[in-house]
Design brief:
8-stranded parallel beta barrel, 279 residues, globular
Length: 279
């Protein structure tokens, strides 16, 4: 069942939990994530990030139509979300395809430019009945974990409040110690900052760089107001390990390897969803 980000986050708020939000740059990851959500009877968000197209994985028009088809036939609520759109023209392409939610990422711009472009994104999305997520602060690394490492800029609670009130976004991604990609050391998370932001906001908070955090930290963050957790790197790693193992078997073929990959990613996604839902 296809839903918007605003609709699915109402479920999270009502249950005081977080919705798992997974990058799905191919059919196998889509089947894994939606299959995991259906097995648990839980809502889920599937995402395409602008960087996926820049990497050559797929165009938004190719993958978006498949995502919408898979979401529409799912037995649980599924939001189809455009993650980390860094230019407005790309967001427009996603809205034209039918994405029910978009994220404008102006974290590398000045505060004024981020505000101005986010307002345009909100206005655009309203014409399609789509939700908007934005970001205040910066994780210090781009989606995908590649590129030059920059210093993280933690979200200021009062700045976050003013930004949400001025732009009218439906959800806000905040920086408090997580990072995109794989962690080389345990992240130092600012739980107090998350709680203070939550007290000031009228919309749900989003956690980016959600892979690889320990269960207790997830639970504390959710208790402090996180309602959407972006998760991909460690699910993708589980799939990669499964591909290596399956590829070493005698007479292994591509379609057989893919089945092993999908199964591994599904189990990883299930484990994550259970934690996010407080199971």
């Amino acid at each position: 069942m296809l839903v918007s980000l605003k609709q699915i986050l109402k479920i999270a708020e009502a249950n005081k939990c977080a919705i798992g939000s997974f990058n799905t740059p191919n059919l196998e990851s889509m089947r894994a994530v939606i299959g995991a959500a259906e097995a648990l009877g839980q809502p889920v968000i599937i995402m395409h990030a602008q960087i996926h197209e820049e990497m050559g994985l797929c165009t938004i028009e190719e993958i978006g139509k498949i995502m919408l088809f898979m979401a529409d036939k799912a037995t649980v609520p599924v939001c189809v979300h455009l993650d980390h759109g860094t230019d407005l023209a790309y967001l427009k392409r996603g809205l034209d395809v039918g994405f029910t939610s978009i994220m404008y990422d102006g974290s590398e711009l000045s505060a004024h430019e981020n505000y101005a472009n986010t307002c345009i994104a909100v206005e655009m999305a309203a014409k399609y009945g789509a939700s908007v997520e934005a970001e205040v602060g910066s994780l210090g690394s781009r989606e995908g974990g590649g590129g030059p490492k920059k210093e993280s800029v933690f979200t200021d609670p009062e700045e976050a409040r003013l930004f949400v009130e001025a732009t009218g976004v439906d959800a806000l991604a905040c920086a408090f110690g997580t990072a995109h990609g794989m962690y080389t050391e345990k992240p130092k998370l600012d739980f107090e900052r998350v709680a203070n932001i939550h007290k000031k906001l009228s919309v749900p908070m989003v956690m980016h760089g959600g892979s690889g955090v320990d269960e207790e930290s997830y639970r504390r963050l959710i208790q402090n107001g996180i309602r959407k957790i972006n998760y991909y790197s460690y699910m993708a790693k589980a799939g990669g390990v499964a591909a290596l193992v399956a590829g070493m078997l005698d007479n292994s073929t591509f379609h057989e390897i893919v089945l092993h990959v999908e199964k591994a990613m599904k189990e990883n996604a299930k484990d994550a969803i259970k934690v996010f839902m407080g199971k």
